[in-house]
Design brief:
The protein has two domains: 24-216 and 345-429, Aminopeptidase; 219-342, Alpha-Beta Plaits. It has eleven helices and 18 strands. The chain has helices at 24-35, 37-48, 57-73, 136-155, 179-182, 184-191, 244-259, 311-326, 349-364, 383-386, 413-429; strands at 77-81, 92-97, 101-110, 125-127, 130-132, 162-169, 195-198, 211-212, 219-227, 266-275, 277-281, 286-290, 299-307, 333-342, 371-372, 391-393, 400-401, 409-411. A six-stranded mixed β-sheet has the order 1-2-6-3-7-16, sandwiched between helices. A four-stranded antiparallel β-sheet has the order 4-5-18-17. A hairpin with a 7-residue loop joins strand 17 (400-401) and strand 18 (409-411). The two termini are 21 Å apart. This is M20 family metallopeptidase. Pfam families: M20_dimer, Peptidase_M20.
């Protein structure tokens, strides 16, 4: 029998919510989330106003301290995991509860943002029912969703004897190398879990309904090195001088555009440097080039991003790209190499089942059913390192827009909605 519960009136919501098929304990959990809505936004504001660009290690640790204090208060055993100094990353926050009741859960978030200390992007700024700021939706909002869901469960006495691990990484936006070191602790936690949930931002469909992520494309890269014959510019196109490195690089990239594109496959040449002297610093993502207009360029370096749904698609793209690179213009040569960063997250029956249960929890709480967002629409995320080992779901954090841009913002009310969904879902998984 369905029953309706009158929603608490908060500054975020002055409407009546219909909660379907919620138990008395679940109704209490919902009430605890709503009672904390204003305080939750205060926690988010504190974290957003600390710059935590990936390379700002002190800032990443400071944000970690904010969330570590909250998790300590909820009875979790917390620790900070430092990374090797050579990796140049701040480390990760891990919190655990040991218990034997229900499913063993791994909850993932990240502390870092793409905005380094010299970023002109503003910090916390309210704009009506939305707020903008550094990492407000990607993904400090998601971290707050985790904290508030767990807090509501704690207040309802529903965390006792549960087995839950929380890991907030300090380098999701630019994972430290080697990945088998920077993600070793995460994978170890996944192997001791039944389900992994990640709290990257919730994507809305065309009708404005919330979705979740059951599959994500890989994040990998390519490096193109092109060589030509340096000489006087008046000789360009001649048999003696050839076409030069810049024209050859342009031919290759346009060949990719014309012959490699297929659904859910993207390749983006993010940096290109050409001239007679070229240098690129991978660590700083910066480069230099020297050349003169009356000299044929003898070198071009291109650094790019390559994303695919599965290894079959990856191998097909690699083969086509290598073939295009091999068709050199006269007087030129080129080579291409590929590197792997984030593995793809395959759409599995297990992931779809987790989505089904999450959607039911949302619908029962009067927040609507949740559909799967097409895998090709999501970028890479930490969930992909654990998805091969455990049933997984991502994209269940706060709702915002403009991630990684000066206009990154967040819908304030989405923190409450996501925390309610998450708290009810975790409660049911851990019974």
């Amino acid at each position: 029998m369905k029953r309706c519960a009158l929603a608490l009136i908060t500054f975020l919501s002055a409407s009546t919510a219909c909660a379907q098929q919620l138990s008395p304990v679940e109704e209490r959990i919902v009430a605890e989330v709503r009672a904390r809505s204003a305080a939750a936004l205060g926690l988010l504001e504190r974290s957003v106003n600390i710059n935590s660009g990936t390379m700002n290690h002190a800032g990443v640790r400071a944000v970690g301290k904010v969330f570590r204090t909250e998790l300590d208060q909820l009875g979790f055993k917390t620790r900070w995991i430092d990374m090797p100094a050579a990796m140049q990353r701040a480390g990760h926050l891990v919190a655990t509860r040991e218990g034997s009741q229900g499913k063993r859960l791994l909850l993932l978030g990240h502390l870092d943002t793409v905005f380094e200390p010299d970023s002109p992007v503003q910090k916390w700024q309210l704009n009506g029912d939305r707020v903008s700021g550094q990492g407000v939706s990607d993904m400090k909002g998601g971290n707050v969703v985790v904290i508030e869901a767990l807090r509501a469960l704690h207040k309802a006495g529903a965390l006792d004897n549960t087995n839950i691990a929380v890991m907030f990484t300090g380098d999701e936006e630019d994972a430290g190398d080697p990945k088998d070191v920077s993600r070793a602790d995460m994978i170890a936690l996944a192997k001791r879990s039944d389900i992994a949930l990640a709290f990257e931002g919730t994507v809305l469909d065309k009708e404005g309904r919330a979705t979740a992520t059951v599959g994500r494309r890989s994040s990998s890269g390519f490096a193109l090195e092109v060589h030509g014959k340096q000489g006087h510019s008046s000789g360009i196109f001649s048999e003696r001088a050839g076409y030069g490195a810049v024209y050859e690089a342009a031919r290759i990239l346009d060949g990719f555009r014309q012959h490699v594109i297929e659904p859910d496959l993207t390749f983006n040449p993010g940096v290109i440097l050409g001239g007679t002297q070229v240098g690129y610093d991978d660590t700083g993502s910066r480069g230099t080039a020297f050349g003169k207009t009356n000299v044929i360029a003898n070198a071009v370096t291109v650094k790019g991003d390559l994303r695919y749904l599965d290894t079959v698609q990856r191998d097909r793209a690699h083969e086509k790209m290598r073939a295009i690179v091999a068709q050199s213009l006269p007087g030129t040569s080129a080579s291409i190499t590929f590197d792997e960063s984030y593995p793809p997250m395959a759409v599995t029956a297990g992931n779809l089942k987790v989505l089904e249960l999450y959607s039911q929890a949302s619908d029962d709480a009067g927040l609507g059913a949740i559909a799967a967002v097409p895998a090709g629409l999501r970028g890479a995320g930490d969930i992909q390192f654990v998805a091969p080992y455990v049933d997984s779901l991502d994209g269940i954090g706060a709702t915002g827009s403009g991630a990684h841009s000066p206009s990154e913002d967040l819908e304030l009310a989405s923190i409450e909605r996501a925390a309610i969904r998450t708290a009810i879902f975790i409660y049911r998984l851990t019974r």
